[in-house]
Structures are given as structure tokens and as C-alpha cells.
Amino acid sequence: MFKSIDELVTTATNQGLPLPEVIINQEILTSGKSREQIFQRMRNNLATMKAAVERGTSGQGVHSATGLTGGQAVKVKEYRQTHRTLSGDAMMAAVEGAIATNEVNAAMGVICATPTAGSSGTLPGILFALNDRLKLTEDQLLRFLFTAGGMGMIIANKASIAGASGGCQAEVGSASAMGAAATVEIAGGTPVQSANALAIAMSNLLGLVCDPLAGLVKVPCVNRNATGAGNALIAADLALAGCTSLVPADEVIAAMDKIGRQMPVELRETGLGGLAGTPTGQQIKLRLFGKDLES
Question: Helices marked H in 32-135 — which ranges?
């Protein structure tokens, strides 16, 4: 198992192999499963992601039982169809897919945790926007997921992917970084450029707190996945343009881990601080659970 981004990138470069191939070979070695078994499992993940996006953008959309989330992905879809978007259609397609997935999650639907349920919209948003723009084959879609998964495993082992221990930077920040690296790879970039994209994307979201209203993975989680998707595409473009991160990817991951440990407990998924601690956040918790924030 690779212990650092640098080790993964160096291995790919020295062997003359693309990142996903190195990651697939490593998975075969550590899991004992065949290549086809590994690919079939990833196909299942891909199908789950696609189904969630389609469900979240169909009809009136998906609404959570609390009424806190729902229908926003459909609004974005209609907006894209009737307006000239300010940030570009590819960007808003990513936003649409990200929101759709997280609305399905908030409604207790089936999603693929990438790397967590709270950050499950970022990668599908990126992936299906790229699919629309680049007309990717199934093999390319799977390669994207293998690259993202390999990067995510390193982040999880070196730092954290849980909001409760590292804030939302560990969830959406990690997902955005994973997506940025995978986007570069699928667009023909080098392993080094993928590492730069990861570092840029994660750097942009360092310090992002986890402050869900009423402690529920709904608000502001849904919109933060949209931001994570957009951030990943920007970071990927920067890396493909030749821009680099002065701080190496592994050091950025270490910084994220340290920042997470320094965050007060109120800003780590407890529903006590940040947006959850606002008067509106307190009123929502009181309405839903009948008790004060401090009780």
C-alpha cells in the first residue's frame, strides 16, 4: 500500500504507467482479487453514482424528511437549460450532479461514499460533467474512480476523511482533491500534474469547518459539495496549464491533518458552532428535536 502521494507518483513515473494502472495493480496485490473482480466492484460504484444523480435530477427532485434539503438540483438543471450560466455549463453540470447526489443522501437514499456520505456528491458531480464534456468511455470513467480512490486511500491513512475528526476540509476537501487529481489523469495529464492538482484543490479548502445545522448532514453540506466539485475542476485546469503547488501534496495533507486537530470540537460535526450555532441554526434544531443547542 502506498504511504504517500510522492511514492505513488514516483512509482507511476518510473514504471511508465498511468496512475490508475498502478493503483489497480496494487489493489490486486493487496486484496488477492482478480482484475475483473476489482473492475466489477468499481462498475457497481459507478452505477450507484449514476443512479443517484439521475434520481436527484428527475421530476421534482428528492426531498429530505425534515424539509431542509431537496429540489435544488432540479432548479440548477432547469437554470442550465434556460439561461446562459455565468460560470459555464461544464461547471454548473458538476454542481448539478453534486447537489443531486447529496440531496439523495440527505433523503436517506443510496449513494456511494466518496470518501464519505457527507462528501458523496463531489466526485459524481465532477465525473459526469466530464463525461458530458469529453464523451468518456466506461473504461475512462472507471480509471477516474481508481485514481480518485487511490489518492483518497493515501489521504485517509495520512490524515483523515471524517468531519468529526478533521472538519469539512477532511470530507469535501479530500473529495475535491481526489477529484482534481483524477480529472488531470483522465484529461491526459502526468502523475506529477495530478499531484499538483490535488495539492492545489486541498489547499483551497484548508480550514473548512464541519458545522451542520441540527447536526444533520444536509445544510450546508449539499452546497459545499457543489463548491468542492467546482474547486476540483479549477485546480485541474491550473495543473494542466503548468501551474504548480509550492507546497508538495503530502505536506498539504499533513497540514490538513494538523489543522483538523487544532479545530475546536464545536467545529467538527457536533452541530454546536459555525452555521449550526447561529440563531437560525438553533431554531431549526429546536423545531426538529425540541431542545436547545446546549442541552
Answer: 35-56, 72-82, 89-106, 122-134
